Amino acid sequence: MDNQRPNRRETPVGAAINVRSAAATVIAAALGAVTGGVTASKLPSDKFGWTGFALVPLLIFLEIFFKHFVALFGGNSNVARLTLAGALVAGFYATWFAVRPL
To answer: Could you give the C-alpha distances from 76 to 15, 32, 83, in angstroms and in order?
Structure first.
């Protein structure tokens, strides 16, 4: 009787970071960066308070298609929402401050 386990590599079900979720995060950061660059080039320098409104369409898009994005994160909706929204905001403001000097 041979009780050895088969030598299979199984992916952990609870893995928060995989290739699909990393790609979605990079795409969200890139969309935020493009929006930040366009906003920084179009808004006057004294209108910093309006920068957050440029993110509203992207965040609405994120919420509308959220059920599709959750699948990329293994069904963990909290991680998906935090990661994607954080990537959008980080990409936006990184580009904003790169284009606009303080």
So the answer is: 10, 22, 11
Query: For 60-73, what is each residue's pLDDT tens digit?
Result: 988 898 888 888 88
Q: How many CB atoms within 10 Å of residue 91?
A: 24
In SS3 terms, the chain reads as CCCCCCCCCCCCCCCCCCHHHHHHHHHHHHHHHHHHHHHHHHCCCCCHHHHHHHHHHHHHHHHHCHHHHHHHCCCCHHHHHHHHHHHHHHHHHHHHHHHCCC
Query: What pTM did the predictor assign?
Result: 0.76
